[in-house]
Amino acid sequence: MTPFARLHHTGEPLLLPNAWDHASALALAAEGFPAVATTSLAVAAGAGLPDGASVTRDETLRLALTLGSGPFLLSVDAEGGFSQDPDEVGEFARQLAAVGAVGINLEDGLGAVAGHAAKIAAVKKAAPDLFVNARTDTYWLGEGDERDTLRRLDAYQEAGADCVFVPGMNDPARIATLVRQLHAPLNILYSPTGPPLSRLAGLGVRRVSLGSLLYRRALGAAVETATDIRAGRTPRGGTPTYADVQGLVMQR
């Protein structure tokens, strides 16, 4: 079992924060987070491109190259793998592993189950040690069909997924039921309106991702700071110093 895989099998769920650049990843690692993931929304927004449209392959790989040698374990949000061809997805996964990534997140977008399972199998063939987090969007994009969710996750586990991800599922009873039906660890997307980390731990969740939350809050804080200053108010919240940020840059 790889070090990243072991983080999913401790007594507590892995809280996985999602960074969007070198500084944000290093700042999170400095706070003691052993693993950091990327978020596809931030990669796309930073490039002026739409998220989930399979158009940020190069940007995603470039960020992985920047972060792959950092003092943390890196998992990469690769949308649906940037291709419908399983072999091309496998090759992209191999490239991620080559630059230091230890995990990959692949979403099904409610597409064909067999097609997504084939992508997962191709990744495990091309990069056997890469930890595959297989995401289904039955709650994120659909209506939360429990039977379809389990059908999809069963197929993804059978294809070799190391962990399964159901963003948008926040009901404690449904989460607990799903945990009992799976043999792979369950990943839940944290929501400020959903169960807190301690409750998710008690339900048996083994990984809690923050997704784009940190990036969106950072954007919100930037706008709030500018409008506070314009209105004559003193900006609130913590602010790293210039030297703090320079220190992160020097850790390359």
Automatic annotation (TrEMBL):
Top-level taxonomic group: Bacteria
UniProt xrefs under Gene3D superfamilies: Phosphoenolpyruvate-binding domains
GO molecular function: catalytic activity
Protein name: PEP phosphonomutase
Species the sequence originates in: Streptomyces davaonensis (strain DSM 101723 / JCM 4913 / KCC S-0913 / 768)
Source lineage: Bacteria, Bacillati, Actinomycetota, Actinomycetes, Kitasatosporales
